[in-house]
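Risk register update: the risk of archive-format incompatibility is retired. Evidence:
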Amino acid sequence: MIATIIYLWNTMYINSFFITYIISYILAGLFWYFVPNGVKRPNIERKDIFSKLTKFIYKYDDDTNGFPSAHIFATLICSYFLFLAFPEQLISIVTATLLISFSTVFVKQHYVLDILGGFLNFGLSLMISGLFGKI
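Archived output:
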């Protein structure tokens, strides 16, 4: 998110990025308020480095607000606007987007359905933000 703001700061896409990002969190926040949900996470007993990293993530990222996935819609919004500003970086942008998406399921932060909700929220946010100006 911070890197996206830095990269987009002097581009014509920064305002549209902020509008879309704000709309996406308003939509998600309303859904989370009226339909509370979360992800049941397993107990981690192993002591390897990946287990320790996953425990660290669980410690600071609650198991609430699973659907829609904020990880996904925020990543998609960042990726979309970075692609508009820097289309020559498509492979890097898509790679980062896919890695983030897969990792949220891999470390049990989200279910696959949450990912689909993130895509839906991204699409709705993009459509609604289009009403406020040129994207």
